[in-house]
Write a structure and sequence with these properties.
By secondary structure, the chain is of the alpha+beta class. It has 28 helices and 36 strands. Strands 7, 8, 9, 10, 11, 12 and 15 form a seven-stranded mixed sheet that branches. Strands 3-2-23-24 form a four-stranded parallel sheet, with helices on one face. It is globular. The two termini are 65 Å apart. The structure holds zinc ion. Zinc ion (ZN) binds next to loops. Its main location: cytoplasm.
Amino acid sequence: MSSCLRLSSSSSSARMLFRRTTFSTSTQQTRLFHLRTLNTPRLNNPSTILPFTTAPTRLRATSTAVPLVLSRQFSYTLSVLATPDDLKASPLAPLDYAAIEQKWLKRWKENKTVEAQAAAVKAASAKELTADEEPDKFYILSMFPYPSGILHMGHVRVYAISDALARARRMMGFDVVHPMGWDAFGLPAENAAIERSIHPNEWTVKNIAVMKGQMENILADFDWDRELRTCSPEYYRWTQYLFLKLHEAGLAYQKEAVVNWDPVDETVLANEQVDSEGKSWRSGAVVEKRKLRQWFFKITEYAEDLLQDLDRLQHWPERVKQMQRNWIGKSKGAEFDFKVNSSGSTEDIQVFTSRPDTVFGVQFLAVSVEHPILNSVPASHQHQLDEFKESLKKMTSSETEPGPEGVPTGLMADHPFLPGTKIPVYAVNYVVSDYGTGAVMGVPGHDERDYAFAKTQGIDVKYVVTPEPTEGSKAAVDGGALTARGVLMGNNGEFSGLTSEAAAEAIVKKADGLGFGREKTSFRIRDWLLSRQRYWGAPIPMIHCQGCGPVPVPAEDLPVVLPMDVSFTGRGGSPLKQIDDWVKCSCPKCGGSAQRDTDTMDTFVDSSWYFLRFLDPHNTKMPFSHAKATTGMPVDVYIGGIEHAILHLLYSRFLSKFAWKTGLYGRGPEAEDKTGKEPGRGEPFKVLLTQGMVQGRTFKDPVTGAFLKPEEVDLSDPANPIQKSTGLTPNQSYEKMSKSKFNGVDPEDMIASHGADATRLHVLYKAPPSEELEWDEQSIVGMQRFLAKVWKVVGNATQAAPAAEYFEPSIETMNKDERELWRTLNHTIKELTTSFQSTYAFNTSIAFLIKLTNQLSAVTPASSASSTTTTSQPASKKAKKVQAEVSPELYQHTAEALVKMLSPLAPAFGEECWETLQSRSSSTITTPGTTPSVFSEAWPSFHEAALKEDKIVCGIQVNGKSRFNIEYDVSELPSDKAGQEAFLRNLVYKHEKAQKWLLDDKGVVRDVKKMIVIKGGKLVSFVL
Ligand SMILES: [Zn+2]
């Protein structure tokens, strides 16, 4: 190891020193080495530079700027990629992608054992590592899948991204957590049980095995020792534990609620599972209303925190944050009390409004059919009310959302601001009981729904606010609801003439003073309904006792195991209800006979805390240890589909914040703020990367519009598809892949025909992660050509003359081609480092790698190691393409860096290249099969100085206008001001365009009043 720290301190010019070989045999040891290097004080001599390969790159992700949108601009690069001739010219054997992938999958598995041994060595020598030498953790997580048994292209995309990130971060010296598991509870397994008579557990386990194999085939390197499945008792025991914690904190409660009932699946649906047409998201059945006693989580208690802390999420897409803001839906307004006189007694109806400025326009009150005031309805109206309630239950045939409907209740309220004014109370279908107060004030003049309802009741609309103060009288004409804020009209008493904003404030103040109103903030978000009348989920750990009511199952009795011996009829609600042995139990409080709760939890509960469990997946005492979760959280990069932008992320934030607030993890707000922990406050995800959809090429019959199957289209000319049966050009588009559109692509077919490495590269190259990806199989060939070209470069590097053990690039002695290659290499390293750390613009990264490969292909390593200048080769008679030569050391160094950077994206191919480079290099003594993995190498670092341009393009201005450019070699520019002026003047006057702008007819310089050199020689301004 000490040889790696051999530093050059003698030279006055900056020298760079690279050891060409690897220095350890396992990832673990390499990581230890990184740590020591990092903590080794640098020598005082400023000219000393640590060798690149040993200086760990620890740039932090400081921004997540939107990746450069360059998705479709690089196709030109492909055309200059390898030709068949290039491939023939490779000194290595032709590529067999399948064989390479199989070889490395096997090797990686074997090396896991080696790594485990190294980890044991590390643990034994743990005292050598002090706490602050712990490698920085980096937690990369792709949303875990539902085990459907089918991996689709969307999965390939998300795992290709997370795997590339994980591999690169490991090379950068981070202690990476990259787990995978299964969101394994849920309806489809139960439906499979009903349809195919297979137990949900069996179905799930089979699917997991299949998908695991598919993930392996795309070369995804997950931490399988952290694998979890939410349907195993070891996991849901802790889901139940968290339920009990929430219950203890008063955040899990039961109440009667009108629920969405899916008559086909026979289950309660959350509002978000009902589409805009009132149909079930899964079965498509029209949803009915039913009343059941349900379990809720009080997420509304956290509404303000969930809203405010969105501002801490600097690295989340703004779109996602806005969707969450809208869902939480905070609105400021007021609450007013309206007195209702019914049969002698006086009761209040409280209403919430976001528009207190329209209170003088109240013409009725609208209450939900559940509102308690309806107990006081006079007998004359009872029958009509009952009929209305009944009609709401049967409201199942309607295809679209019903309009506002309601009936008068016979109750009248007093307008608090207009003594003597009586207002009718209606029971309506558009106010729900569990939202706000279950009552709203009806202002038809300024609210569209109230207006629509008023029309059904024949109410003459009253206007009290005009958006156009000068046309106040016009607004009095019935022209629909005027919803804009404006100025209060003359019918608002003492508030007339005020703006809406000023009036709202004054009205609330007065109401507050008189005791019938107050300021109030309202949220759109509702408590989280988590009860499911289904089998395949985590049982709710509650027991119902006649005497004691609902009693929590004691924590030590967890898990409440889901019984396995059940029958599935698909009808009649949850199978759990039918299992007497299971349902009957004794009350933990009084010991009397009691019954288990037969509801199971919404699967969103399982997936709202799995990221915490991944940090400590085998803990049998707690859901996760405080220490492990505190160190491991937050997830540094979370990758998944935008379709989870609202519910999954909101629920996860809620449970993570709850765990943090109750001290299950975290150091508390003060300690966190001190250390600048980001994002803090129990926020679970630091960077959120929402990947776009993968779309398939879709063909439609131009006449009928029917989707065409692939075999119905002649694609012999891919650019001009033809419908075989008609000879017509079909309509073409890119659409979400689906069976009914015949546009799906099976990842396994892709991998079988093109290899996993090329498939991964293609997925990453076609579009930036957040954009939609238009799948096009034809262009995958471009990626194979790219890999073939890299293979040829690797071959050239191994053929080069024996290279010195150390590569010491010296810009002073490099020739022009070497300097250009050196600069491109450093640019590429810089780009890829940024990409892997903050922008995730993998499409751009691959374009840079292609460029570097092309440049390496355009030069050859010089045949003699001593050659560092361009040797003009004697022109052979055959006049073959004469390639510029670069030093073999630089060629090899560049090829190695190229392979290191390509490896996270195309891992098996990268390993093969690395092994080839190492085993054939004379300076490395390795036996085949023992070369350390490329992933135990350190990520290359770039050198700022090397990024400087050789050539300067200098703009020439004459009298303030740009006229022409000159070009010169930066090394020729003198360092002093007078020298620069003389040098540039000479160049300018010799330029052909100088004639027109600076010289007279005789070629004599015109009278130059002033010549100014700007920007270090990049701009020269002449004043004549
Ligand atoms: Zn009891």
